[in-house]
Structures are given as structure tokens and as C-alpha cells.
Write a structure and sequence with these properties.
Structural class: mainly beta
Order of helices and strands: EEEEHEEEEEEEEHEEEEEEHH
Largest sheet: 6 strands, antiparallel
Shape: elongated
Helix content: under 10%
Number of helices: 4
Distance between the termini: 73 Å
Strand content: 25-35%
Radius of gyration: 29 Å
Amino acid sequence: MEDVNAWRLSTAGGIPYRLFEDSPGGSFSEEDADATEVYIIQASRLNDFISESFPNPAIVFTDGWRFQKKRKMPGSNLLYTIRVKYDAFIPDGLPTDPWENDKDAPSGTYAEFLKVTINYATNKDQGNKEDNDPEEENVEEDFFQVSAQASGEFFTLPTRGSAWEEEYPGAPVEPIDDVLVPASMIIPEVEYTVTYPFLTPWMAKVLAYRYRRCMGGVNTKPLAVFLDAPAETILCVGFSYTWKNTWRTGDSKVDFEGRFLEKSPAEGIGHNHFWRPGKGWERMVKPDGDFVYKIGSLVPLFITGPVPGDPKPKRTEDHINWDELGLDTDGIWGDSE
């Protein structure tokens, strides 16, 4: 039996391998790239190699959630594993049994080595990176990614209290008396989608709880997540999710999306401002004295650590010790009416 420990190459997880002939290869364009490597590994290490290539992305520590990256192609690049294919590697064409289903098989029944083909590509789910230097890469994957789309609200502008611009300097201001003047404007808006691509079912449940608390509310402070959008300009609209099964035994993942709307028709104006004829944009309060949109912190939607009020998990692997962390509820939520 060949001593694989003498092989010069090994993965980050310590799995010895040899490069197969004509490997690696790939192609690059201005933004995207793909590559292929072919390894020879022991059949008994296939499961370890797959786990290293596609680690369970979401794991729970005592201080919150952590997200692991897929295996990266060796070298100075940002290509990540997208597929692993395996075949028997032996001239005689023996079958393979990498999962050791046939434990009583005589020696030599199955191939000792496998030929593993790894496909790499740029990964759209690796998050929003301000620094794409692989030497400075964090071992955790980003919790979420943000995308934005320009939008606008068609608004019929009441003319009462308005006037026509003076025709020349010193000319008398001409009030608009005709209420049928077809005045309208477009209020600029930005629609944000926040994608959380690697949630476990429990994480999705916790995040849904946080979103329900924030829905219909606006930010109390500027939000760096949305390029420092000013206070009260970001409205939490709601969320959606898709449940997916994976090849891992008993494992599921949830793709979760949050929706937000930025509205600021003028500097210092936000969602709680409405057009008052003859006055302009002013804040409105309801009969109960509250603003139309509640004001509070949206920060809990973007942190992986536990938040006061989160539902408590039933599974041991989902557990976070809230008492030991001693979290400040007001400091995190910062709610106000």
C-alpha cells in the first residue's frame, strides 16, 4: 500500500493529494473566472474532502452565529468550490466504496484511490467585500448581502397655499387659486433587498421574529448597511424566505430576504413627513400621539449575535447563553415612539 503521508501536497484540512495530469486549468474574463483541478486522493478520505469543500455554512457558538466559507482554490485568487465529482482511479477499473457500505468485502475488492474533479468559480454568495485581498480574508462568511434598485413614488401635489414664481424681480407673487392645476412630482426612493443565503431553519425563525418586531418601523439612527442613510428614511417593509433541502442527512437551509424602502424627498425629510398644503413637508402624528411609522433600531436585523427577546431554542446545538452575555436590551433595540 502506498504511503500517502509522503505525498508533498495536502489540503488545508490535512488530506494528502496528488495533481492529476493536465491539471489545473481554467479561464478568466474581466470580472468572472472558473477553474478545474483533478486530484488523486484515498477513497476513505472522500467524505472528509467533501466536508472540507462544502462545510456546513451556519454554525452556532455561545456568542452567536458564525458562517464558514466553502473551500477556496489554492493560490492567490477568490475562486471557490462549486462542484466535486469523483471516479475510481485504478487501471483495472475496480468499483468504489468510499462510504464503506460493504464492510466485509475482501481486500482488493474496491479501488483504494479516487480521481476527484473540483470545479471552482467566482462566488456570488461570498458577500459584500470592501477589501478583496485574499491575504486579509476573514474565515467567516458574511451574514448578508445588500442590493439596491432605484424607484420613485408618483405624488399629486396639492396647490393650495402655493404660488407662481415671480415673472421678474420685484413682481408681485401670484397665488395659485385654481385647485385643478395638474401639479405632480416624483418622490425619489430606493428599494433595498437584503439576502441571507445560509440560514438554518432555527436562524430563519429567529430572524423572522426580529423582522416582525421591526416591520412598519423606520430607523432611529443613520444605517451604515444602507450607505449611512439618515434617520427615519429607511422603512422595514417585510421579509420572504424559501426552504430548501440539501444532500446532508437531515439538513435543510433557508434562503431569507428582507425588504426595505428609502424615502427622502428633501434633506432632513423621511417617512414620517407628509405634505401639508400651504406649509410643505411636516411630521404627522396620529390621534394617539404616535408618529405614523414607529421609530426604532433596525440593527438587530444585521447582527449575528443574540438579541434580547429572541425566542429560545429547543435544540442543544442552537443554544446561546443569554444570561452570561448580559446584553443591554435598550442599547441594542433603542426603541422610541
